[in-house]
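Subject: Sanity check before I submit

Could someone independently write out the structure tokens for this chain? I want to compare against mine line by line before I put it in a report. The sequence has 144 residues.
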Amino acid sequence: MDLRKEYPRSVHEKMLGLVQLPRTIDKAKAVVHGNVGEYNYDCPMDQGLFEFLGVTGEELLDVVRTAKSDGEIEERLAPIVRKKSPAEIERWNGDWLSHRPEGRSFEGFLAVRSRVAPDREDVVTWPDLLDLDEKRDVPVRVGV
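---
Independent answer below. Compare away.
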């Protein structure tokens, strides 16, 4: 994965039923290969995932670094994810995708949104804003 030339997967994409995980893995792969570009591994969004799973960024990085394939990465992460019930995962996914930034995060969010999509006041979450920034379609939301 060369994040200098391509985007990581969307926050919305799932692996083992969990949003954010594929994107974080893409960034970890890029770190391992030295081509993370402008992306930040172990950023606050990644840290939220790590906290939910009860792992550190370095532990996930070690899985990616030592795995021989994408299948092996998923296989090694499955027991960690299975410690969470389907209800916990569903709740976390929903909260994760709908959480609105606050404080300094909100200020940064507004700065990015004004650059990327100044006409999209309906975009109120980082997952949607990141998708817009990475040229993915984001449906217009009414009444947000």
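---
OP: Matches mine. For the report I'm noting this point. The radius of gyration is 15 Å.
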